[in-house]
Give the backbone structure.
Amino acid sequence: MFIEERKISNKNNITKNIMKDCYKGLGNIALNDNDIESAIDYYSRAILYGFSKFDGYKCIGYMYYEKDNWFKACEYFTKALSIKQDVDLYYNRAYARIKMNDNSAALSDLTKVIGLSKNYSQAYWARATIYFDRRQWSLALADYKRYSALNKNDAAAVYNIGVSILNQGNKKAAYPYFNKAKNMYQAQGNAKCYNDCVRIMNRINGYAY
């Protein structure tokens, strides 16, 4: 009896594996054809037949993400993250939450990203931007500096460091950052941003412009 039950069990497992591979394959085909809705449906079915829940939820989440369906993307990223931590999933869930104006939850995700990967520069930038928009200048400054240390040629980061310092009332400390950003923008041929730096520097020096 035990042997017969085991044979049945093995047969069921083979059937499940076949169904899993079929639905996963159909999902891949649909994805290649840019048929996102069908791909989501096939991957969901593959999960029912044993496809890795983490991989399945992640794939579905990214498909909704590409469709700008931020709510559903967050839903599936959350399901995947409940199984295993993943630094990119935390970052992309943060981005989706920013798109939904849920900046408090996004801050939590970005902090997790930084905790898992100290050199994940885009997380510093995104978190700094939220702090900047909230006028939390000292927090924005700290993150822009961390981002700038990892992206030394990013003139916008240097400029934002200057703005964050200036908004804390320290003109003298802010001035060198605007001067550095000005030179970087000049080297890039970015006349608009170059002129913005010049205007701020003139204002700091008390010149009319």
About this structure: The chain is about 80% helix and 0% strand. The two ends are 94 Å apart (CA to CA). The CA atoms of residues 170 and 191 lie 26 Å apart. Residues 5-9 have pLDDT under 50 and may be disordered.
